[in-house]
Amino acid sequence: MVVGAAMDDLSEDDFRGRAKDSVTKFSRTQPVDEEVLKSFLGNLFYVPCKFDDAEAFKRLKSRLDELENQRHTGGNAVFYCAVPPPVYPQLVTQLGACGLAREERGYRRIIIEKPFGTDLKSARELNTQLQKVFREDNVYRIDHYLGKETVQNIMVFRFANSIFEPVWNCNFVDSIQITVGEELGVEGRGGYYDQAGALRDIVQNHALQLVTLTAMEPPVAFDATSVRDEKVKVLRAVRPLEVSEMAAHTVRGQYAGGFVLGQEVPGYRQEPSVKPDSETETFAAVKFQVDNWRWAGVPFYVRSGKRMPKRVTEIRVQFKRPPHLTFGREQIRETQPNALVLRIQPEEGISLKFSAKVPSGGIRLRTVNMDFLYLSSFVADAPDAYERLLVDCMLGDPTLFTRSDEVEQAWTFVDAIEASWRDGKPPLETYKAGTWGPKGADRLLEVDARRWAVP
Fold first, then answer.
1. What integer pLDDT is reported at residue 322 of this predicted model?
2. Number of C-alpha atoms within 13 angstroms, CB side, residue 160?
3. Confidence at 340, pLDDT banded by 50, 70, 90
4. Which of 45, 126, 205, 258 could bond to 432 as cystine, CB 3.0-4.6 Å?
5. What is the pLDDT confidence band of residue 361, given thresholds at 50, 70 and 90?
């Protein structure tokens, strides 16, 4: 059963009506089975609850106790906090004060949506507040990227196939590129986004999660402790950027007006609720090193932006060129180095790029692709990321959720960049909507004699 609790003064019939409309409109199963929907709606309840009202939380507890006795839930409860981040401390305090977090019979778990703080200081304060009321193993920091089948498949691809892991290191890999791009703008969230920006909104969580899964060592087992321990080790190995390196290792940009998918769109500063002189970045790119045995000397390039030419999230493992030019310099020059591309969304799959001989009388080389596509390889419809993660929380499996030390380590890296950007180093660049970002992003790789791959 689901008990809604929010500031809206709704009756339970109103709440069920809203749920019915949403399910009918957005369900992945169309048309909706009316009998299943009727059963689902019969398990929805609602309690009006203002977050600063202690009496409202007591009423919520009373309603949950009543339903527990009626439905025999065994005292199990998951509190999903879909609220603005500043409300988290107050909400958690209220849950503790009225006894809702106390495990008298079953479990009591809490799910926290990102962002987990706005910097290292606020993240630590939030973690401290949470751990006063809930045990750390009952705190589930949800990042929907970790629930995507393609993200989970990174570990399966690496550690269940013996042909890839031996070359997954600095001896064979030239560089790693991670791109998280959206064709969308701020879509009515200008007020929020103008306080966040691309670095905090995407790089600190989604992008660094992909870095950890790409760079981590094989865990001893696929369980929460082992997997998350290895991810934290990667973040601890990320070399901090010095102030003197910021201009050469980071790029920040903001989109101007342009065309995306054939439609004219306004610039960021013309978006509703955005300050007309805003310095908030809608594009962020960072170059860094992971200082450990496996990745010594391999640069990681991460970029994320809005109003890109298309929506795409991918990881590109670029391999080194062969050490001997057997087929001559010209032939090698016309081909691309081997690359393994893990496409997270929207066209989920894996592509291996390698050189092959063109059918002809002489020796001519061409780069070709070997593709694996989820859609054509698996008939089963994969669960939505949130579906998977909510079930994992109810089962008590935090493997795909973010641990407190992982959050804090990510903020440690990002905070130094944020501090430099606030001082105007490097300066904010502009880029036209519908392009892959500002010119500085290209220079970030050109100084290393590399370039971004076009997704």
1. 80
2. 8
3. very high
4. 258
5. low
Q: Average pLDDT, stretch 287-296?
A: 97
| 148 band by pLDDT with thresholds 50, 70 and 90 | confident
Beta strands at 250-256 and 429-432: parallel, antiparallel or unpaired:
parallel
Domains of the chain as residue ranges with CATH: 2-145 (3.40.50.720), 148-380+403-446 (3.30.360.10)
> Which of 72, 144, 206, 249 is an active site residue?
206
Tokens representing 279 are 């310095």
Residue 331: the pLDDT is: 60
Mean pLDDT of 309-318: 96
User: What mean pLDDT do residues 179-201 have?
Assistant: 91
Q: What is the 3-state secondary structure (H, E, C) of the chain?
A: CEEEEECCCCCHHHHHHHHHHHHHHHCCCCCCCHHHHHHHHCCEEEEECCCCCHHHHHHHHHHHHHHHHHHCCCCCEEEEECCCHHHHHHHHHHHHHCCCCCCCCCCEEEEEECCCCCCHHHHHHHHHHHHHHCCHHHEEEECHHHHCHHHHHHHHHHHCCCCCHHHCCCCCEEEEEEEEECCCCCCCCHHHHHHHCHHHHHHHHHHHHHHHHHHCCCCCCCCHHHHHHHHHHHHHHECCCCHHHHHHHEEEEEEECEEECCEEECCHHHCCCCCCCCCCCCEEEEEEEECCCCCCCCEEEEEEECCCCCCEEEEEEEECCCCCCCCCHHHHHCCCCCEEEEEEECCCEEEEEEEEECCCCCCCEEEEEEEEEHHHHCCCCCCCHHHHHHHHHHHCCCCCCECHHHHHHHHHHHHHHHHHHHCCCCCCEEEECCCCCCHHHHHHHHCCCCCCCCC
Short-list 1, 10, 91, CA closest to 39: 1
Whether residue 326 has pLDDT greater than 80: no
What tokens appear for 199 in the block?
């670095």
210 vs 321: CA distance, rounded Å: 25
Residues 6+ apart with CB under 8 A from 397: 224
Q: Are 58 and 66 in contact (CB under 8 A)?
A: no
> What pLDDT sits at residue 374?
81
Task: Identify whether 206 is a catalytic site residue.
Answer: yes
